[in-house]
Amino acid sequence: MQSESALLARLRGTIAQAKAVASAHPPVPLGSEAADRALGGGLKRDGLHEFYAAEPQDSPAALAMALLCAVRCRATGHGAPLLWLRERKARSDGQPYGPGLAELGIDPDSVILLDLPDLMAVLRAGADSLHHGGATAALLEMPGKASAFDLTASRRLALAAARMGMMVLVARGCAQPVPSVAHSRWRVASAPSAALAADAPGHPVFDLTLIRHRGGKEGIDLRLEWNRDEQSFRAPLSGGVSAPAIGGADRSGGRRAA
């Protein structure tokens, strides 16, 4: 049997190693102080995160939220490109538009778009991209049922993300959550934005519900606004005043401020 001093030394070594790994891949803060505090610092940088549309019409919002989280990861990281992997059939929902990305504060040159024939090709390309590294984050767009994205496929992506220190974001439109090893899983809906000066369209606003979290923080409701100039999320502004950002469902199905 190990002596007490040897056991303590081993435990100290294990703790030091865990701290070193954590410091190498610090969480990605969303930018809202209250939201980041609730999430324990932000999203796991070397983790797998899923974004499900609350309703079919919210599919663009789920995709946008996943993309903006990838942008946030890049803004707080080493500035490597973003990988966006999508099935060719997703063209029917529209193609990424350079000026539109720029309007969100995204440099189109920072995004590498792979237009792939089917879901299996998306999963293979995602795994290969993680294996070789060189990117800040990988966004996998998976509309519809996507039966090939099962527990095994998610485990492969999560392990590769942890090994390479890359964030993996999966956007699911018109789909129901399925078992996976995702570090976090979100339900996303679009929310009304406040008009800017001269009645110009406001910043994108999202209603989010954290439906799974490996840190045990499920059930958090957030309303976040994207600030394109700072490439960061914040509590929505209403007449220049920060609106409540975190709450829960009341008995009528609405929201209450925390």
Automatic annotation (TrEMBL):
Region (Disordered): 235-258
SUPFAM superfamilies for the chain: P-loop containing nucleoside triphosphate hydrolases
Matching InterPro entries: ImuA, P-loop_NTPase
Biased composition (Low complexity): 245-258
Name assigned to this protein: Protein ImuA
Organism expressing this protein natively: Stakelama pacifica
Organismal lineage: Bacteria, Pseudomonadati, Pseudomonadota, Alphaproteobacteria, Sphingomonadales
